[in-house]
Amino acid sequence: MRDSLPTYFISHGGGPWPWLPEMRRMFANLETSLVAMRAEQPKAVLMVSGHWETEDVAVMSAPKPPMVYDYHGFPPETYEISYPAPGAPDLAQRAAELLRAAGVPAHLDPDQGFDHGTFAPMAVTWPQAEMPVFQVSIRKSYDPEAHFAIGRALAPLRAEGVLIVGSGLSFHNLRLFGPQAKVPSAAFDHWLAETLALPAAERTAALRDWDSAPYARVCHAQEDHLVPLFVALGAAETARAERVYHDVDLMGGVTASSYRFH
Predict the structure, then answer these.
(1) Which strands form 133-135's sheet, in the order they lie side by side?
(2) Is 64 exposed, middle or buried (0-12, 13-18, 19+ CB in 10 A)?
(3) Which residues sit opposite 57 in a β-bridge?
(4) Mind spelling out the 3-state secondary structure of the chain?
(5) CA 133 to CA 95: how far, in whole Å?
(6) Most buried of the four, 12, 113, 200, 206, by CB within 10 Å?
(7) Which residue in 244, 260, 189 sits closest to 29, CA to CA?
(8) Residues of the chain with pLDDT under 70
(9) The whole model's pTM is what?
């Protein structure tokens, strides 16, 4: 049996940034961190994106997933982007079975396509679109423990060659980009780094209570972009956290980070 792969929580950047030269330059450090994930050499990627919410857990099962252009105000050509990576129907079935066996309600979704929380980072990491990829949704409840449970259920996939990636943002307040984001995002990012360095049980407990962190509800008024972290960590709950990406003053003030759990 192969060694278990790590899991990741990535800050996935803004909209279709890899296709926009100015934005791509701004996210150069993020791109470097994403390219480094190639070294994991998985057989497939399971992406948990903050852009796909369902009541129960849904698992993308299309063999050729379509595109979902879930952003606004970008150039017309970005609504014609194609990222033709294959899906992974057999692994989707396996993931759904693992979830149900753990008591997590789950169903297959043969129609869901790649949202930008998946296709933007994947287009940088595997630009030839050769890597099979499928998504697992987050739950609309955003409940931390429910998302830890999803990750725990999916953990066996790590030993089966599947790279589990939680795709969100460590700061996500679309109304607070620019200088006003500087203090809140830096404070929350510092708290997150300190929290992820705690022993496993303390770390899980602290993340359950994440909204008591400094500026928590300023940085995440709605925590859709944070809960992918809980899935990634639930799948590697005793693993060491390593910060693999860190930027300051993005978009005029945002501090953002990504982590590898191994």
Answers:
(1) 133-135, 44-49, 162-168, 7-11, 254-261, 241-250
(2) exposed
(3) 106
(4) CCCCCCEEEEECCCCCHHHCHHHHHHCHHHHHHHHHHHHHCCCEEEEEECCCEECCEEEECCCCCCECCCCCCCCHHHHCCCCCCCCCHHHHHHHHHHHHHCCCCEEEECCCCECHHHHHHHHHHCCCCCCCEEEECEECCCCHHHHHHHHHHHHHHHHHCEEEEEEECCCCCCCCCCHHHHHHHHHHHHHHHHHHCCCHHHHHHHHHCHHHCCCHHHHCCCHHHCHHHHHHHHCCCCCCEEEEEEEEEECCCEEEEEEEEC
(5) 13
(6) 12
(7) 244
(8) 1-2
(9) 0.97
Six token digits for residue 241 = 């956290």
Return the pLDDT at 251. 86
Side chain identity, residue 25: R
Give residue 82's pLDDT.
98
- Residues found in the chain: 262
Calculate the CA dihedral of residues 67, 114, 223, 140 and round it to 10 degrees: 90
